Amino acid sequence: MSDRLPPLTALRAFEAAARHMSFAMAANELNVTPAALSFQIKSLEEHLGQPLFLRLNRAVKLTEAGRALAPGTSEGFQSLTAAWRAARRLQDTNTLNVTAGPAFTAKWLAPRLYEFARAHPEVDLRFSATLRIMDFDRDEVDVAIRFGYGPDPGLFSMPLRNEWITPVMTPELAAQYPTPESLRHAPLMFDDSIDFLDPPCDWPTWFRAVGMDFTPTHGPHFSQADHAVDAALAGAGIVLGRRAMVVKDIHEGRLVAPYKRALETKAHFRFLCRKGAETRPQIAAFRAWMLAEIEKTAAVHETLDILPVEEVPPA
Which InterPro entries does the record cross-reference, listed alphabetically (predicted)? Predict the structure, then answer.
């Protein structure tokens, strides 16, 4: 039996009919008449030498051969569509699709986007703020900004500045709680989005890093880092702020980090794209802009006494 593939149009007709389980709906999707679609499927069955559908009175049903063929044709056309879109995107030097977590988008990207838009008016930026790991081909993503440990096999991965955490608050609250010891009586808040870090970068760990044995148990918890930072900006309490989420507010004086001690984690933000795509004009411009923006707040990093969290004495 020959392995020669049948015509692509016949396979396309079968895939649509198998997905809809309706010749009429498949014909409508492919913009052909039901008779033309039926002819394509009939020719495919003749090529195979056995039926793919059971034709019932008002419905169709896959035969055993049809059930064997359907998954592969569906996956094949999805792959072809993704490959075609990827090839077409190579011709587009103006559109840039970026995905990042909601907190990073709100606290790092959004407040700075005006500067990029002003410097690169030719680039049409499109953002998807989600924690879902998106596929570069299927989801038509050009750049992903992700936080964690990696690795990122098969991708161009550029680490951004190392990530640290330190207590941050408004200047007014800093005046009320001038020392780490005074935090025993302060309104502490919890950013639960960093609970996955190992070793932990939480309040008990930070207190041990400054020589205190204290485990706070009361205070509001936030599942999103940007919500915790917004609460701190409103003066609701003191939170362990992550560098990327608070550095601009510290740099511009809306928040302060009065105790200097910060904990550095090996988890970090990475700039990700397909290998080879990092040189595309809009991606290279966006990467260079991010690095330049990070350097604008580098002075904050220099004011802190940063300790790798692995060096904090255990509980």
Answer: LysR-type_TF_proteobact-type, LysR_HTH_N, LysR_subst-bd, WH-like_DNA-bd_sf, WH_DNA-bd_sf
- The C-alpha atoms of residue 127 and residue 143 are separated, in whole angstroms, by 10
d(CA 106, CA 38): 52
Condensed to tens digits (0 to 9), the pLDDT of residues 231-277 reads 999 999 999 999 999 999 999 999 999 999 999 999 999 999 999 99
- For the chain, the DSSP string reads ---PPPPHHHHHHHHHHHHHT-HHHHHHHHTS-HHHHHHHHHHHHHHHTS-SEEE-SS-EEE-HHHHHHHHHHHHHHHHHHHHHHHHHHTT-SSEEEEEE-HHHIIIIIGGGHHHHHHH-TT-EEEEEE-SS---TTTTT-SEEEEEES---TTEEEEE-SPEEEEEEB-HHHHHH--SGGGGGGS-B-EEGGGTT-SS--SHHHHHHHTT-------S-EESSHHHHHHHHHTTS-BEEEEHHHHHHHHHTTSSB-TT-EEEEES-EEEEEEETTGGGSHHHHHHHHHHHHHHHHTHHHHHTSEEEEGGGSPP-
- Whether the CB-CB separation of 111 and 253 falls below 8 Å is answered with no
What domains, with CATH codes, occur in the chain?
8-89 (1.10.10.10), 95-162+268-296 (3.40.190.10), 163-263+298-311 (3.40.190.10)
